[in-house]
Amino acid sequence: MAEHIITLVLSGERLDVTTSTPFVVALRDLLYEGDWELLKEDMKKKENIMKEVQTCEKLEKVVHLDETVYEPLIFPEFQEWLREENISPKDFKNVSLKGLYDLALEYADRNFYDTAHDIIKFMLDIDENYAPAYELKGSLLVEQGKIEEGIKYLDKAVEIDPWLVQAYASLGEAHYNLGDYEKAIHYWERELEYNPNDKITYFMITEAYHEINRKDLAAKTLERLLKIDPDNIPALYQLSQLYRDLGNEEKAKEMEEKIMNCKPKYPTELEPWARVMLKHGRYKEVVEELEKIVESSPLNTLARLLLVVPYVKLGQIDKAREILEDIGQNNFWYYYGKKEVLDELLTEEEKRACGIS
User: Angle formed by the axes of helices 283-296 and 267-279, to 10°?
Assistant: First the structure.
């Protein structure tokens, strides 16, 4: 039963704000994308709800009613309110379930999986053929380690909606985690049929081909990616390594040359770009680029660590030692994890000179 909170006077009319008022605004936003008319069509036989809607519509003449009215929304409380108002899933005819989907995702992102699954169940009680709900449930189950159960829901999602790209992505991940790399490749390829510009998926397929020792097909996958993104530095770098493993040194050098004609734009491009540039003795160019990055982002530990190599090569040992001492003291495990970069690019004498044991 709604409790009275406050009475407002608007143009001489008294408007009662109750404990139901925030829930009615939430109902409008979550299930009707902010549309009062669609809500009223479904709730026209619910006297209490209609009265609240009338109050809200009058209030909105002077104040905007948005998520600040009801956030944070506690879904179990929202569900309890629906039960108190005798609103059941069969009452929802003109709804959009996107708001509930996003809410379930928010709960899952905060590791409140039980509540996320409750929201998904509520969605399916409203519409048992809502494919995104099956996709989300399956993806969450995979994330929770319940892979085989998750696959069942993901299969249901693509059965209902064969164009649901995210379900194929999650099916690929699920089968990869089970060690069934060929099935993972199959589903990721299905994903690319509908979304050929998803660059991450090309790398996932490449990794799966590595697992079954098909470096030739891994290389072909990255070649496809480079057709849509010719300057993708991580793809160029991996492809150079694959060509070298496959005995094609000429193509490997060609990929490295392309990398040296690029500039890193994203964090994931920084290390492969620097590795190739340093391998080919382009020390001053690397210093120039990395110092600009460190100047704009002083906490960029990777850029600082990579600077050690060109500093040593250019005889600026003191600068190299200063960086190593700072990272070693304040971020030891990061330094330890990246030490192989220094081992690869510095000689034993150079490492001793800057204090690397």
Answer: 160
Domain boundaries, the chain: 286-357
**What 3-state class would DSSP assign to 9?**
strand
Give the alpha-carbon dihedral of 148, 154, 160, 166, to 10 degrees. -170
pLDDT in tens, 253-290: 999 999 999 999 999 999 999 999 999 999 999 999 99
Terminal Cα distance for the chain, rounded? 72
CA–CA distance, 155 with 141 (Å, rounded to integer): 13
Spatial separation of the C-alpha atoms in residues 206 and 162, rounded to whole Å: 24
Residue type at 155? D
Closest Cα to residue 28, out of 38, 41, 18?
A: 38
Distance CA 345, CA 316 (A): 16
106 CB-near residues (< 8 Å, 6+ apart): none
Across 106-115, 240-249, 331-340, 343-352, least confident range? 331-340
Query: Could you read off the pLDDT of 240-262 as tens digits, one per residue?
Result: 999 999 999 999 999 999 999 99
Return the pLDDT at 6. Answer: 85
**DSSP output for 148-183:** HHHHHHHHHHHHH-TT-HHHHHHHHHHHHHTT-HHH
| Alpha helices (H) along the chain | 21-32, 36-43, 47-59, 75-84, 98-109, 113-126, 131-143, 147-160, 165-177, 181-194, 199-211, 215-228, 233-245, 249-260, 267-279, 283-296, 301-313, 317-330, 332-345, 348-353
Name, in order, each residue with C-beta under 8 angstroms of 38's C-beta and a sequence gap of 6 or more.
Answer: 32, 94, 95
Cα distance between residue 133 and residue 326, in whole Å: 48
For 90-147, the pLDDT digits (tens) are 999 999 999 999 999 999 999 999 999 999 999 999 999 999 999 999 999 999 999 9
Q: Which residue is listed with tokens 């399956």? A: 138
Does this model's pTM top 0.90? My answer is no
**Distance in angstroms (rounded) separating the CA atoms of residues 139 and 214:** 28
Residue 216's identity, in one-letter code, is D
- The alpha carbon torsion through 142, 147, 148, 152 (nearest 10 deg) reads 10
Q: Locate tokens 């993901």: which residue?
A: 154
